[in-house]
Amino acid sequence: MTLPAVVAAGQTVCVTGAGGFIASWLVKLLLQKGYTVRGTVRNPDDPKNAHLKELDGAEEKLRLYGADLLDFESLKAAIIGCDGVFHTASPVTDDPEKVEETIIGTKNVIMAAAEAKVRRIVFTSSIGTVYMNPNRSPDMIVDESCWSDLDFCKNTKNWYCYAKTVAEQTAWAMAAEKGVDLVVLNPALVLGPLLQATINASVAHIMKYLTGAVKTYVNAFQGYVHVKDVAKAHVLLYETPAFGRYICVETMLHRQELVEILAKFFPEYPIPTKCSDQVNPRKKPYKYSVKKLEELGVEFIPVKQCIYETVKSLQEKGHLPLPTHS
């Protein structure tokens, strides 16, 4: 049972942090489906939000609101009168000072959504709230019932995972208290073409292997997913009878596999071939389940296509020098 198209066309939804990587694709998809979209950005006139105004349907159906996550009234102005809220805005940071901001921002969005009596909030969390747990047996399948261990995040100074975990837990507690229907998406590292002009943190993760900025790769694993699949998953979680949390990962790759894929597609760049860890055996990935999302009909774009499109986009946007063929 999804919302019929006529419903989508008549609905107004708010996307927080609309200028971001995931949010831009989400806004694009919502406009395509006929939603009226209110996007919150720090400054609607900032040239870095220009790409949103150029999206198909933006002229008729998109309005940008200047709002700050820490300013409740500015959020409320954007959310009041909306049927739903997609809360994607969150500082991607390893700064412990920013932890509090992430939590306050989440509280403000849920408060505003509760006052606006929205139908549902779809909250963009992270796989980082799920898997960071040193006590989990390697054979255990990581699913939506798993939570990252806050002490472990603190002790390893992984402030991003710490902040996202506390923010998500806060969101669940507040949604329960305020009687708001909340659904959460937990994507892995998101790749794919950029709509925005600036480079975001997840795409920088790929770029550093192409510029010569790093000479070696680390002995570690990472899950990846295409930004279009993440946008599509958000809309599905809004339109279908979804509940709880949804892990969103296409594949896990060891960094060695990542650099090998990059080298195969783009041999002209100085891609590292050596691991920085010459002592320990190659790390193994944890097992995870995306059954919940697949049951809603998500089919993932393969990771190799994802990586290829990311690099092509970096070239097209002028972030990467085009290879010179001699």
From TrEMBL:
Species annotation: Cucurbita maxima (Pumpkin)
Family as reported in the entry's similarity comment: Belongs to the NAD(P)-dependent epimerase/dehydratase family. Dihydroflavonol-4-reductase subfamily.
UniProt KW NADP keyword: yes
Annotated GO MF terms: cinnamoyl-CoA reductase activity; oxidoreductase activity, acting on the CH-OH group of donors, NAD or NADP as acceptor
Entry's Gene Ontology BP terms: lignin biosynthetic process
Gene: LOC111481544
Catalysis: reaction(s): (E)-caffeyl aldehyde + NADP(+) + CoA = (E)-caffeoyl-CoA + NADPH + H(+); (E)-cinnamaldehyde + NADP(+) + CoA = (E)-cinnamoyl-CoA + NADPH + H(+); (E)-coniferaldehyde + NADP(+) + CoA = (E)-feruloyl-CoA + NADPH + H(+); (E)-sinapaldehyde + NADP(+) + CoA = (E)-sinapoyl-CoA + NADPH + H(+)
Protein name stated in the entry: cinnamoyl-CoA reductase
Top-level division of the source organism's lineage: Eukaryota
UniProt cross-references to InterPro entries, sorted A to Z: Epimerase_deHydtase, NAD(P)-bd_dom_sf, NAD(P)_dehydrat-like
Entry keywords, A to Z: Disulfide bond, NADP, Oxidoreductase
